[in-house]
Amino acid sequence: MSRSDLILGIESSCDETAAAVVAGGFEVRSSVVHSQADEHARYGGVVPEIAGRSHLREVHRVVEQALDEAGVLPSELAGVAVTTRPGLIGSLLVGVSVAKSIAFRWSLPLIPVHHIHAHVWAATMELGPKTSPFPAVALVVSGGHTNLYRSLAPDQLEPIAGTLDDAAGEAFDKVAWMLGLGYPGGPSVAALAEEGDPSAFRFPRYRPKPTPGNAAPRPLGFSFSGLKTAVLYHIRGQDALAPTPPPDEIRDRADVAASFQEAVVDALVSQTIEAAHREGVERVLVAGGVACNLRLRSKLTDAAEAAGLIATFPSPAFCTDNAVMIAGLGHPLLGAGKLADLSLDAAPR
Ligand code: KG4
Ligand code: ZN
Fold first, then answer.
1. Res 243: pLDDT
2. The CATH number, out of the four listed (3.40.50.200, 3.30.420.40, 3.30.1490.190, 3.30.930.10), of the domain defined by the range 3-123+320-335
3. Could you tell me the distance, in angstroms and rounded to a whole number, from the CA of residue 142 to the centre of ligand 2?
């Protein structure tokens, strides 16, 4: 790999401060992620002011560690890629400022990266440089997103459908809170679900309604607020204002976790397979923090296979926020000359 293939990636859009060095878009040389989960845990979600301050505190150490672990000097880099959108503005600005100062100091190309494109690139990385996944349907499921896209190129996603309310990861986080589990909720709900029966309770699976009098196919989409409320009523009884019982008094806690997870997974699987059929593609790319979920990975893999499709997931370490996906996507963007100058700004959306 020539030295001109090494890209430093910086990610700070939410509550992970991350830096990585990736060669040629696919070869991971280092990956450092500092998670702020502990700092936000007692609030049950990310507090923007705390996130921004924590990024400021950690970012230089994280970037230095990523360069050290890769054994790379800044002067040997081909470029610096950084998440510019979407995300928390105060958090994004920390990564963007650091990337700009490195690019200026070392006269390096500055590569702006869209966080969602990068999540999808993490799935593409699994295929290696010789297999193009395009066109594909991409399912992006994280704490902030639950969307289906037509994926046409590394930086080209066209929206097909999304969620009407909560993101799937957000639903996991809220149900974790109800069950007295830690933040982030996805991993803890999934762990408890291992001990439960996914068919114990039949929680609702939202399906968009067909438009009356319209012959067009039923629209695609997601909604998790009804499911969340169903879980809440199940735990508290019919009085939603009643206090949540202490975790050890919640009846069938593991069954609730497993049945909730099953409802989320079923909705994600059915809409994704349907979208792939309608788009006439052969591949589904799955990305974002919820793509770590083992039940989703196995049910979507099986459903795709049964439908003659291939589902590709990032390796678990690169599902949640990381900088490998930023540095990786930086490579094709640099090749295409999609660069920014030092007036680069961050954008929350
Ligand atoms: O992609 P990500 O790190 O950050 C965003 O861009 O939002 O995703 C974080 C989300 C959280 O809501 C977390 O609860 C969820 O991904 N998550 C999971 C699992 N691991 C993380 N959800 C379900 N099962 C998991 N194993
Ligand atoms: Zn993300």
1. 76
2. 3.30.420.40
3. 6
172 lines ligand 1 (CB under 6 A): yes
pLDDT of res. 1 = 44
What number does the ligand 1 atom closest to the CA of 119 have? 1
Cβ of 187 closer than 6 Å to ligand 1, yes or no, is yes
Is this prediction's pTM over 0.90?
Answer: yes
Ligand 1: atom nearest CA of 13 is 6
**Which has the higher per-residue pLDDT, 137 or 177?**
137
Query: Percent of the chain having pLDDT more than 90?
Result: 83
**Which tens digit of pLDDT belongs to each residue from 58-72?**
999 999 999 999 999
Containing 302, the helix (H) or strand (E) segment is: helix 294-306
Mutate to test the pocket of ligand 1, among 83, 115, 290 (most ligand atoms within 8 A of CB): 290
Tens of pLDDT, residue by residue over 89-135, are 999 999 999 999 999 999 999 999 999 999 999 999 999 999 999 99
